[in-house]
Amino acid sequence: MELCNCIEPPWPADELLMKYQYISDFFIALAYFSIPLELIYFVKKSAVFPYRWVLVQFGAFIVLCGATHLINLWTFTMHTRTVAVVMTTAKILTAVVSCATALMLVHIIPDLLSVKTRELFLKNKAAELDREMGLIRTQEETVGTMLTHEIRSTLDRHTILKTTLVELGRTLGLEECALWMPTRSGLELQLSYTLRHQNPVGFTVPIQLPVINQVFNTSRAVKISPNSPVARLRPVGKYMPGEVVAVRVPLLHLNNFQIHDWPELSTKRYALMVLMLPSDSARQWHVHELELVEVVADQVAVALSHAAILEESMRARDLLMEQNVALDLARREAETAVRARNDFLAVMNHEMRTPMHAIIALSSLLQETELMPEQRLMVETILKSSNLLATLINDVLDLSRLEDGSLQLEMGTFSLHSLFREALNLIKPIASVKRLYVTLSMSPDLPEYAVGDEKRLMQVLLNVVGNAVKFTKEGGISIAAFVAKSDSLRDPRAPEFFPIPSDNHFYLRIEVKDTGSGINPQDIPKLFMKFVQSQPLAAKNSGGSGLGLAICKRFVILMEGHIWIESEGLGRGATAIFIVKLGIPGRLNESKLQFVHKVREINVGRMVTKGLLVHLGCDVLAVASGEDCVRAVSQEHKVVFLDVSIPVSIVSKLL
Amino acid sequence: MEVDQLQRSFLEYTNSLFRFLDGQFGQLQLLQDESNPEFVFEVVSLFFEDSERILNDLTLALDQQNVDFKKIDAHVHQFKGSSSSIGAQRVRNACIAFRNFCEGQNVEACRRCLQQVKQEYLLVKTKLEALLRLEQQILAAGGVIPMLDS
């Protein structure tokens, strides 16, 4: 027997099982030591953990357990008493701590569990609140759109404002809602609409109140005191009045809408909307309600401006319709007047032409009879004057056609010399009665023949010369005719007159100078206007309708020319100058003429006519019979002479 | 010089014709120029041909049992035309009178008018022939036919 303080292990020394136990104990100890380390690490890391004391306890418990197991390792082999003592101590301690921990956990675990439930509860609550918020928001939006829709569904000013107030009152549960509009003078606000009263008596408040300025200076809704003059809308009751909010409504004026521009809000014209919560409800204005009010105020402003624009455009449309009706009436009246005038002219023309034609026909017949030379001269003058008068009558009707531009010149070849001589012959008797001289000078380079409208040129010449004679009391008239060269063609007063010289045409310039009463240079432009007499009081026998010069000007323009009058002033005489474009005969295309005689044999008449026409410069084709004529005629032939005994069938074939 | 003399006689003769030929003949003479040297001669010859023919037709027509006044009127109208063209005014005037009687359908009067027309025609024919002969003489002598002042 050995006397060592060794203690025998209670178990048999079974090698394998012992070994396993040994290893397990080791690992257990390891784990037991590392768990608290982990705990400490993570707890240090986390910010919040309310139960530190429990942790410490738990840590101690584990450490001790670990220690126990660790020490147990030594008890597998022979070990000393100290080891056993330590082991025992450790175990005792572990037991104590574990019991304490267990006791502690009984308190703690329900708490911990309840934390979890509370967390869950809070999450649910948050979700619910979120949903509610969403609902409220959508509700607000719906209300907002509905409100604006209501407001903007009408374009009538009153309806807009009334609807606004009603809807706002409904949505926000207001006690009173009122609108103050600025008066015409802009110095006061007048109570225009309220929710409760149908027709508010027109209270007014001056616009310069500080509270009003405060509201007008911001675009937000402003809480104002219920005692301010704009808010005293309800009879004072015994209860506390509810909170009052006021917001400005900009009144956009039509003038602010420039095209492509947005209205500026420096209009300074606002209306005031006052909203009152129910009294004694302890309700307060919430932010979203204020926002709603601001939005509504803006919408109202827009709706009002639309209504104003609509009113304006309706008025404009009505005005236009009225004007259209008036214009239509005026047009119909004008048409009637024109038709009446044309009818009158046509009838008068016919009435005037009949006697004219009688005069012309009978004078022609008279010309054919035996007359003495003086008689013949008289008859010729009568005939020429009647022809001119007939032309003038035609022209009175033509003047309207002239103005339309539908009149055409009748071109023909004529002798310039004979034109001037005839004019001279016509004017000489009248001039000699007034003891005026008439001289004519024709430049030698004037061609003998020209192509143009002889009748109308004669008319212009006679008109101009006649005027000269009319307005001259003493002295005389001198007529000069020459071919205009390019520098003398341009009149500085008529820059649009651009004569273009060409081979086939020449410009004839005629100057008629008189020593008469002259014309005031300021009156010269009026001369060529219709129905304007430059000297209404002067000459006693200045007859005439005032058409003469106007017609002359039109004819001259038709002849691609220009006419004007120069005068140095009253009493200094005047010179009328006109330039017309005439063709040069022989260089223009001739017309082919053809005539037919019924008799088969060659006949004197045909030959003579052919000879005359050839002499005048035409191409003539003479045929012997109607059938030959039909065969030979073509588009080139301008004129066909037929004997009266040609049968109608041939004539119709020719046509 | 012969040409001068001839020309003078021509002019005198022409002037003496004024009772028989009016201004129309003068116009015809004016139409004669270098391009148409024989104009007057041709016209006058044609006139003679036409007139012979028409007068024959007229004589025949008036000798019929049933006088066709329409046809006669047509013939006279033609003759009036050609005589006017040449300027034979007396012939023309006779034709005018003839036509009036035609309208009246008076056979006797028409016959008398025909006689009158024939007479006038012969007169003017003689004159024209003489004039033409003078012209030929002047041309043959190398001169130019003088122009008249119309």
Amino- and carboxy-terminal Cα gap of chain A: 177 Å
- Structural class category of chain B: mainly alpha
Element order of chain B: H for helix, E for strand: HHHHHH
Specify the biggest β-sheet of chain A: 6 strands, antiparallel
Query: What is the strand content of chain B?
Result: under 5%
Uncertain spans of chain B, ≥5 residues at pLDDT below 50?
none
Oligomer category:
heterodimer
Q: Which structural class matches the secondary elements of chain A?
A: alpha+beta
Q: Sheet with the most strands of chain B?
A: none
Rg of chain B, rounded, reads 18 Å
Tally of extended strands of chain B? 0
Average pLDDT level of chain B: 85
- Provide the residue-averaged pLDDT of chain A: 79
Number of strands of chain A: 16
End-to-end Cα distance of chain B: 26 Å
DSSP summary: helix tally of chain A? 15
How many helix segments of chain B? 6
* Arrangement of strands in the largest sheet of chain A: 3-2-1-6-5-4
